[in-house]
Amino acid sequence: xxxxxxxxxxxxxxxxxxxxxxxxxxxxxxxxxxxxxxxxxxxxxxxxxxxxxxxxxxxxxxxxxxxxxxxxxxxxxxxxxxxxxxxxxxxxxxxxxxxxxxxxxxxxxxxxxxxxxxxxxxxxxxxxxxxxxxxxxxxxxxx
Length: 143
Ligand SMILES: [Zn+2]
Prior knowledge:
- It is a single chain.
- The chain has 143 residues and is of the alpha/beta class.
- It contains three helices and seven strands, in the order E-E-H-E-E-E-E-H-E-H.
- The protein has one domain (12-142): Lysozyme-like.
- 24% of the residues lie in helices and 18% in strands.
- Zinc ion binds at residues 16, 122, 132.
């Protein structure tokens, strides 16, 4: 585990996707390798990764500053769901029921640690012009 700066505040829980296809069995170690080897970051950008089988894996320390949401890294925790692209590489809500179940549990846990934090998708942040995480997080939470 690479040591990194502890966030002073956590006002947001930001949900992302890995933008990989449903049949790609991407793991937290794969994403860490992409971020460290290819992007030359100190560690994986997300604080948490939820793999296709619903497994909740720790990325960066949950209290540490991640690298996942421009302008919000010092005040948010980042959760990445593996998946989000269809066969043609287009955005698709193709996450497994196990992943959604784990996401609910993880959000509940994080809200216990960071009471009052706003839960939203990456695309809901101002100035973001991408589809990540390929579903409407706020509508899903109300469902
Ligand atoms: Zn994202």
